[in-house]
Fold these 4 entries.
Entry 1:
Amino acid sequence: MLLPLTILVLHGPNLNLLGQREPGIYGSLTLAAINELLVAEGLRLQATVLPVQSNHEGVLVDAIHEALGKYQGILINAGAYTHTSVALRDAIAGVNLPTVEVHLSNIYRREDFRHHSYIAPVVIGQISGFGVQSYLLGFQALVHHLRAGNGKS
Ligand code: CA2
């Protein structure tokens, strides 16, 4: 029998606008459609997916804290907070849950200020530049990591 897993999927600021603006950079799928794909992939992999989106840094920090004891891992697209938030980095390091960072766009091909991620040093790994596939690949990698016996990051 497979280890039952529950994964918190965190979407940061402005990602609620997906599918409505800037399809050239972020694709034409809505956030709801991305969540549906993740839930479907979760069914395939026997892992429950709980998606949360917030435009507020503190709400994201609280969600990370509340993940302890409820979720085995976190998949996060921190949006612009990737490049600014020591608070998110400290929260991820603080709960010590295996976390994978994803980005729709390739942040290293964009403006210089997007090249640095505050959270990259405290996550298992990062997938950037594959659109919605970044989420799916990141999710698969996280499930694989957890099933391989890596309960801590
Ligand atoms: O590529 C990504 O996934 C990002 O995390 C997206 C963030 C950006 O600040 C990061 O550098 C890279 C921005 C998300 C904003 O999403 C929008 C979607 C539609 C319209 C406007 C913004």
Note: The chain is about 35% helix and 20% strand.
Entry 2:
Amino acid sequence: MNQLINFDKKNKVFHLHNDQISYLLEIEDGNTLAHLYFGKRIKNYHGELHYPRLDRGFSGNLPGSLDRTFSKDSLLQEYSSAGEMDFRTPAIIARQKDGSNATFLTYEDYQIIQGKPDLEGLPHSWVKDKDEAETLIITLKDEYGDLKFDLLYTIYRDRPVIVRSVKVRNTGKDTIKLEKVASMQMDFVDRNFDTITLPGAHANERHMQRNHVNQGIHVYSSIRGTSSHQMNPFVALVDKDTNEFVGDAYGFAFVYSGNHKFEIEKDPYAQTRIVVGINDYNFNWKLKSADSFQTPEVIMAYSDRGLNKMSQAFHSLIHDRIIRSKYKDQVRPILVNNWEATYFDFDEDKLKPIVDDAKRLGIEMFVLDDGWFGHRDDDNSSLGDWAVFKKKFPHGLDNFADYVHEQGLKFGLWFEPEMISIDSDLYKAHPDYLMSVPGRKPSPARNQYVLDLGREEVRNNIFDQMKAILDSGKIDYIKWDMNRHLSDIYEADLPASRQGEVYHRYVLGLYDLLEKIVDRYPDLLIEGCSGGGGRFDAGMAYYNPQIWASDNSDAIDRLKIQYGTSLVYPQSMMTSHVSVSPNEQNGRITPFNTRGVVAMWGDLGYELDLTKMSEEDRKLVAEQVEEYKKIRKVTQYGRFYRLKSAQTSNQCAWETVSHDQTEVVLSTVKVMASAQPYFTKTKLVGLDPDRRYEDQASHKVYGGDELMNLGIYDPVEHGDFMAYMYHFKAID
Ligand code: DGJ
């Protein structure tokens, strides 16, 4: 096996490489760790192409040095600190015992290891065997203090991806306070970047947004305690002419589900720095003597062929090496969920006919959503009381689960484990479990409060309650919801000096609770959710192989939400349901077929009362379900391409191709109709040009080269929101 990481001692250069990418680092003057290059593969670095020297006014020099041409303020640094002569955004801010924020980072040592170490307590990418990756650990030290920084870089043999994180160690006697610890930093020279980000809102998540990077600092972040609907933890840096198929794209995805911060700074010399990590807002970590702090990791993907190739690198890494669930390669069950069908107004008698209909229509799982526990008839009570609501299920939950199983369906159950209602037995018994600042009234949101998950006692209580339900062995799936963001940040078990740790300790507590569930119930399919897609991130993928993409189930709004989601996350991770028309969230009327085509982009489900549908519509459900069963292996696990965006045009088109190029599913939606339409074509991509493909509906045969170069004419029909799906199979 070829080595993936080399150290050139003479030139003091580290080279991480595989067939697709190279990453170069150099130990520069004053033992400063400098960034040289990240991009397309370079066979050999000959040690000649260094960062130039120039005396720049007001960019000072190394302590004790008379060389005015070398400055940490302009060098492409690999990991920079506050308190040294670099006035750009630092990766680390440490408060020393003397009260200063001085840290001066110099190179100390390195180590190369086979494979990739696990990050204890944090989600992370992993390796199947040690040969598939190598990890470089470079240790920097504070030249005048006790902090050490292990910078971890993992390169996989077959992926255009590098994964980075940092471990900070306190080797001295005194406690040091970490006020900021980024997981990575990268500096670029001579690039005129745009950023692509995924901002949004509740019911309007992850829209693609493109901004130009001008001089100054651009920040994309969350301080909501979760990765959030409002700003997904992802940024891409792309050249001005980069599009879906052409140009350089550097993507940075944070494997973390709490507060995050992406800082992109264009400096006075038109160089661009990106710093990614836990948000330093209300962050202050006391690092005692001999303690260490491990940051979450960042996946960095490089594409020399536009955004689709970058997305494919993320999809395959997240699917292959972050998701662990046994369901990761299994076709996902088609479900019906009773939320938009009944909301809180149900009991077992009302639900059983839905289950019966689901069976008749070929649906594979029934999910019992919010309202089955405590005395919950609306959203004002019972969170924290995970015992069945006898009024709705007089024969018990097991009995109802048996009924669902007898119909041949799997049974799924909704939980919201991180929350507490004032009107609950849990609050009566343990009011201190509710996260709040002593002497202040906490703010409700959806009339609920957040549990103090940093405390083990609180986590154990919730775990024991969930165990009592899940140990029955009758639950096949859970939907793990979270319906508000964190406020009133305080942990009752911690002294005043450590309240700056609470946000991160909450996330660590959440991961601990999830790990316990995943560990005890390996057969459980867990779907993540946070008021829709409020915690749709690579960290959650480690525990939840699928996540509810949005509380907005309108097919046309979903075009933008799902398009943005696909920038980073694989299709199998995104759940998407057909709901009623007019849509419950925005009142839009859309054809049933369109709702099906859009929902089949991800893991298909139904979010409506099957018993209230006309016989004709029910027939359509059965047809959709049958069709989906034929294509889902390709659509869930094939190579995914974005073709046309509804954000920038009147059409949306996307395509998945099986990895052996024998099966293809193409979907298109024309948003608005026109009385005098222009003809448009959709050209497929990623096919074998030498094969012939048969359209499974019309039985027409086309060459792969025809479909890719001539393209197919988009149908022209009356009416807005018309959708089309094509399923091609190779015939030779
Ligand atoms: C928010 C989720 O996104 C919905 O699907 C539903 O489960 C509700 N919560 C229930 O409260």
Note: The pocket of DGJ is lined by residues 339, 369-370, 414, 481, 483, 529, 531-532, 548, 551 (CB under 6 Å).
Entry 3:
Amino acid sequence: MRTLLIKINAARPEKRKMRAVARILRRGGIVVFPTETVYGIGANALNGAACRKIFRVKRRAADNPLIVHVSSLEMARRVCDIPSKYQKVISDIWPAPLTIITKSKSILPKVVTAGLETAAVRMPANRIALELINECGFPIAAPSANISTKPSATSALHALGYFKGKVAAIIDGGNASYGIESTVLDLRTFSILRPGAFTAEEIKKSFGKSPRIASAYKLKANSAPISPGTKYKHYAPSTPLFLYVGRRGKIGSILSNIDDKFAFIGSSASSEKMGKNVIRIDIGSSKKEIARNLFDSLIKLDYTGANFAVVEQQSSEGLGLAIRNRLLKASSNRAFKTAKELKKLILLYSIKD
Ligand code: TXA
Ligand code: MG
């Protein structure tokens, strides 16, 4: 299949181009498009056969449901029930990187909800995405635009690497502004199923109550190393990644003892302290910058020729909660605090996929 790369102006999407992409979706094709969080690989959410293609191309497990993207509250109501007590707050928040889990309606094909009684629905805060959905007149089901287990795409170039020849079109709408996926909030239990770009603090402020957060996300920066070898794999580069959860400021001296070709992914301040032999991937300073650069850093890492990489854990306030979650998964929970622990990880795991 020939993949069209279509550059679209994010501030003023060209009508003609939007119509061409909508036509592909209307005919049951799949396309990659930008959202404010990460790029999505989308199909007509009401067309089961079209949505099945996404699973095939992404190599995604059939029991992992898709997020349905809408451009209006009415469209959301066509696919799910939004409890009346939440209607106002959600209409105030949207468009935003907040996905709600609520009872689904039968109009949604089973492949989208993975047969669950609930659906994941969100209105993206990105003009290209919103106008595309509008132009189509139907919601777009879209997971993040990456091959399953790999880091999510935050640019058209990342998506091209994953899907060239496999999708009809890839829209280039510039780099994703958040760089990290939406927060998934289950409205029935009021709990965060996946921390994301809409912070727990923002949820508390807009809903007037605190969401439950699974304890796994709350780990302190200095907590004990998590046992390695968890079978869950997600966002993972091919280069083995180890997570530093020890005291700030000590990582430089720990790494100075390691005689190997490796990369360090960390804040600008920590990167500066690394020795010349270390491949440095500067991830920025503020949480916002780190979120925006995170997946790009993980994708770049695989081009460096490093035998393994070390990444610093972040504190859990604000966007930090989502960053920590992605780092834990990308490193398959292989965390360390001391040079001794790191050496053990290197011995056990520093063989690429
Ligand atoms: O920011 C985002 O959310 C991006 C952009 C493209 O919108 N999309 C995205 O989709 O990250 P995906 O498929 O990579 O992640 C969706 C998450 C998965 O963890 C999935 O299991 C969960 O949402 N999910 C979907 N439907 C669900 C449901 N009914 N109940 C619980 N979790 C659900
Ligand atoms: Mg994903």
Note: The first strand starts at residue 4 and ends at 7.
Entry 4:
Amino acid sequence: MPATVSDAALAAAVDALRAGLLVGFPTETVYGLGANARDPAAVARLYAAKGRPADHPVIVHIVEAADLARWTREVPPFAHLLAARFWPGPLTLVLRRATGVRDAITGGQDSVAIRCPAHPVALGLLHAARAAGIDGIVAPSANRFGRISPTTAAHVREELGNAVAIVLDGGPCDVGIESTIVDLTGPAPRVLRPGMITGAALAECLGAPLGAADATAPRVSGALPAHYAPRTPLVLLAAAECKTHAQARLAAGDRVALLASAHTAQTLGAHAGLRSVTAASDADGYARTLYANLRALDAAGCALIVVEAPPSGAAWHGIADRLQRAAQGHTLLPD
Ligand code: TXA
Ligand code: MG
């Protein structure tokens, strides 16, 4: 069960939002860095705190699907279907923006991304904010640009320090990786960022096949190859190579961090230079702990992180996506 926070803590967070300050808060996916979506100065502060380029749009979090019409100029039938089935939950919808929705939120695009999160603290904050006249909270993941997303309140403090006025502590996030993003502005719905809601589940709900992502797809900063990267170089390898690669590096005197199945970790055995974390064998459990595991391994002072490739299969798609990006990150990230 996620932790809850007091009404007084929620009231203080809403006061901070009204003052144009930033609030860290838990969602079921990852922690968000929240700002009043209608306050351009607060949104500018948010981009500065994250170190995020201005053309990378953010997600507007709303308290219920009925508020979609405040942010979008049309709510197509597909949006109603998906919202009814998956909200509150780890799904973001990209829709045509309403007039008055600022370029600062959309990266200058004609679309806006909207999500209704399921975490009780997020919903409590959104309720209290709306009662105070704030009908949307923009919230990117509360990490510095290109870094591992936070899944605890302590991670948010590590990432952003005093740039964030208040961090609401709702315990560790349950889903663990960012929401699935679906674009509903084109001829067919398409997934822009895979997550724990699978393409198959979306297609089944819609009763229609999904379109393929293409070059005209709206920009998704999470789709930069270098996203979600630890500082330590990370390699993603199949089980057998995982073992031989780790052994070779250990033999060469390197300290090695390993994220692998219990079986692979066992066959490698104990070694003074090896810091090993056993990954869950189910996709939900793996995702829930992925970012905390990567943070711990990143902090272990090793020369590299070796990650055993997760199983194939639709349930693992979002996880595989994040790992592939993390594996590319150390060569591409300016950091
Ligand atoms: O699970 C989540 O979605 C978390 C929690 C805090 O809600 N938020 C999150 O935000 O992951 P962020 O900013 O780290 O990622 C938002 C993604 C970016 O990849 C951004 O490019 C995409 O949403 N996005 C936002 N507006 C968009 C738009 N109008 N069209 C296409 N992509 C958009
Ligand atoms: Mg992010």
Note: The pocket of threonylcarbamoyladenylate (ligand 1) is lined by residues 27, 29-30, 32, 56-59, 90, 92, 94, 106, 109, 111-113, 115, 117, 139-141, 178-179, 181, 192-193, 218-222 (CB under 6 Å).
